[in-house]
Design a protein that fits this description.
Blueprint lengths: L2 H26 L1 E7 L1 H4 L9 H9 L3 E7 L17 H7 L5 E5 L7 H7 L3 H13 L6 E6 L18 H17 L4 E2 L19 H16 L4 E2 L3 E4 L31 E5 L8 E7 L12 E5 L5 E6 L9 E4 L8 E5 L11 E6 L1
Length: 357
């Protein structure tokens, strides 16, 4: 064989190997399909703020999270806008999912839907579960208890009575879970009485979506991470404009820490001497309009308030959503903090969430 031909054959072999490796890697990714209505779609949120988008950031590159939410849709096949007939539903069936997270019921609860067809909800839901379970990938299907809604809201005719969710929808979803022996996600209990996480009384804010993402993360991975809490500790230099160090831990990304100290301000938590924890993940959001002030900021841990271990650094301008830093290793720590190292950064951070167990 001429040398040129040998070289060409060698190049083709390398290309084939690369394609095979890429294909194998793609198949190895775990696909999570998020199915639902506007709460899944991320109504009133930017694309990177929806719960499926935040879930993808939390899960990392070993997973592919796909958002198949469609606003206004119902589980009821005879509802005013059935999910069953949407292109998103068709796409979800061909996505080769390994997990399917289903979250319907808000629109089904509308009097015009439930009063006429509520008795069909359980059967329709179980039919959808069976359809996904019958896919070649045999995905784990997880029904979700849905979030409550609150008054006032912009649609009082459709959503007139918040008690319809706990009294009608959640029991029906529980029957589905019992009948199908499905693993489930509780997206109801964490939101009871928490209207601040719903911008219009119906749809979660970016903070509410983050809680949904955290719930989904634990369900998919089994990690059982919890938000670590403790007494606030800080640089002691004071704050300005009524924006204290504690604002970084109030699960409200519209508030933020604004330190008097221009450089080197910090805020954190003391878990307590008998409550040291292993940190697994850090989530954070920047002050809106001052995102660049977080560049160079560092997250640290300590057991004596003197020697600090750096666990992560904000290397670039963060987005207007919850960014994630995974933490490896298993040391136990008592003190955790965000140290604002950038020049004239004034400690600006909207939310810091330390996750561990």
């Amino acid at each position: 064989m001429p040398n040129v031909a040998r070289v060409r054959l060698f190049q083709l072999s390398l290309t084939a190997i690369a394609v095979l490796a890429s294909s194998t890697y793609a198949r190895a990714a775990t696909v999570v399909a998020c199915v639902g209505d506007s709460i899944t779609a991320g109504y009133n949120l930017s694309g990177n703020q929806s719960y499926p988008s935040q879930l993808g950031s939390m899960l990392g590159s070993a997973y592919v999270v796909k958002n198949y939410g469609v606003s206004g849709t119902t589980m009821l096949k005879n509802g005013n806008s059935p999910y069953w007939g949407t292109s998103a539903y068709s796409s979800s069936l061909t996505s080769s999912p390994n997990y399917v997270l289903i979250q319907f019921g808000t629109n089904d609860s509308k009097p015009s839907n439930w009063n006429a067809h509520g008795s069909e909800f359980v059967g329709d839901y179980e039919s959808m579960i069976a359809t996904y379970q019958g896919l070649s990938t045999q995905p784990t299907v997880m029904p979700c208890f849905i979030t409550p809604y609150f008054l006032p809201n912009p649609w009082p005719t459709d959503f007139p009575d918040p008690s319809r969710i706990p009294n009608l929808i959640e029991p029906a979803i529980q029957q589905v879970i019992t009948d199908t022996a499905s693993p489930s996600i509780d997206n109801y209990t964490p939101f009871v009485g928490q209207s601040q996480w719903f911008g219009d009384g119906i749809h979660p804010t970016v903070d509410g979506a983050h809680i949904l993402a955290r719930n989904a993360y634990n369900a998919v991975t089994g990690a059982n991470l919890t938000v670590l809490t403790g007494v606030n500790i800080n640089d002691g230099g004071g704050s300005s404009g009524g924006n204290p160090a504690t604002a970084a831990f109030d699960i409200n990304s519209t508030t933020y820490y604004d330190a008097t100290r221009a450089t080197g301000a910090w805020t954190g938590i003391d878990l307590g001497s008998a409550n040291t924890k292993t940190l697994r993940m850090i989530s954070y959001t920047p002050r809106s309009g001052r995102e660049t002030r977080m560049v160079g900021g560092i997250f640290q841990a300590s057991n004596d308030l003197i020697n600090w271990t750096t666990l992560g650094t904000v290397s670039s301008r963060p987005a207007d959503t919850y960014s994630v830093i995974p933490v490896n290793g298993a040391p136990l720590y008592r003190y955790l903090r965000y140290y604002s190292a950038g020049s004239n950064s004034h400690g600006n951070v909207a939310e810091v969430e330390f996750l561990g167990n």
